[in-house]
Amino acid sequence: MAYATVEDLESRWRPLDSDERARADVLLGDVAVLIDEAAPLPVPPAEPSQHDLSLRRLISCAAVKRAMAVSAATVGVSSEQHGTGPFQDSWNYANPMGDLYLLAPEIKRLRGDGRQQAATIPMYRTAGG
User: Fold this and answer.
1) SS3 letters across the chain
2) CA-to-CA distance for 117 and 81, rounded, in angstroms?
3) What is the percent of the chain where pLDDT is above 90?
4) Residue 45 — very low, low, confident or very high, per pLDDT cuts 50/70/90?
5) Known InterPro entries for this protein (predicted)?
6) How many CB atoms lie within 10 A of CB 82?
7) What is the pLDDT of residues 8-35, one digit of tens each?
8) How does residue 98 score in pLDDT terms, banded at 50, 70 and 90?
9) Where do the domains of the chain lie?
10) CA angle, residues 58, 10, 79, in degrees to nearest 5
11) 102 within 8 A of 59, measured Cβ to Cβ
């Protein structure tokens, strides 16, 4: 189950052609697997909050955008340098293979690291426990 739709991605990035839409649909499903592995939702009967679902949609779109931002002409190229006379131009690509991945800050947000939480710890044993 994907957390975002192709329309969500387009509204956060740019319009996609039919081939890109098909690829985005697959990648949105794939990134949902990565998100669920990094930060599983609570099992029923607890329903995920609207905040959790919105965060998963936002991070899904960001990850798919990173993967799709690589052009076919530059796949596998990690850096590029051009020179003409005294002028030099150099590029380093952030995701040369177009990999689908989650950033460490995204995983922290998904897991709720840094959010205030409260809990109790029993300091005694109960009967039978």
Assistant:
1) CCCCCHHHHHHHCCCCCHHHHHHHHHHHHHHHHHHHHHCCCCCCCCCCCHHHHHHHHHHHHHHHHHHHCCCCCCCCCCEEEEEECCEEEEEECCCCCCCCCCCHHHHHHHHCCCCCCCCCCCCCCCCCC
2) 50
3) 59
4) low
5) Mycophage_D29_Gp19
6) 9
7) 999 999 999 999 999 999 999 999 999 9
8) confident
9) 6-80+96-111
10) 80
11) yes
The answer to whether 91 and 43 are in contact (CB under 8 A) is no
Spacing of C-alpha 128 from chain mean position: 45
From the number of C-beta atoms within 10 Å of its C-beta (0-12, 13-18, 19+), residue 10 rates as middle
Cα–Cα distance for residue pair 126/129, rounded to 1 Å: 5
Q: Which residue has the tokens 């947000």?
A: 109
